[in-house]
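Z., the sequence and structure:
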Amino acid sequence: MVRRRAPRLASIGREHQLDGHRLYQQEVAGWAQRRLAVNPSDPEALWNLALRATLQNRPEAAQRWFGVLQAQEPSRPWPAVYRAIVLLADGRPWQARTVLDTVPAAAANDRLVRGLRDLSGVLSGDLRRLATLPQSLPQAVAAARREISRKP
């Protein structure tokens, strides 16, 4: 048996498209669990498990892994952004809003964070955010598209 190296974040999208049986996900899980056994705070392993749970449509597990990353990296907005997106997709906008409220002030003005904060606010009943949502949401989508289209 030829052992392949576990896919990293950059290759998950490609593997997800090419591997119709999603066998790579088992490989990722095993690789990540071995890494966590050695270092329980290994960020690469945690990101892989969070993304795997997201791709498998397991929002509880995904938001839990993103929560661990958020606790480990409180100054970075990305774990909170991913966690909030998972919570929004799972129909829990009030929890997404709470998560986004913990994003550091320096990142709170980020277009993506602002748009998600307004969206989760409106969906959770804070109608005051309706005034800014028509501007902040398109800006958030544009920021996400720019980030996605950047080459690794």
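The radius of gyration is 17 Å. The chain has nine helices and no strands.

Let me know what you think.
H.
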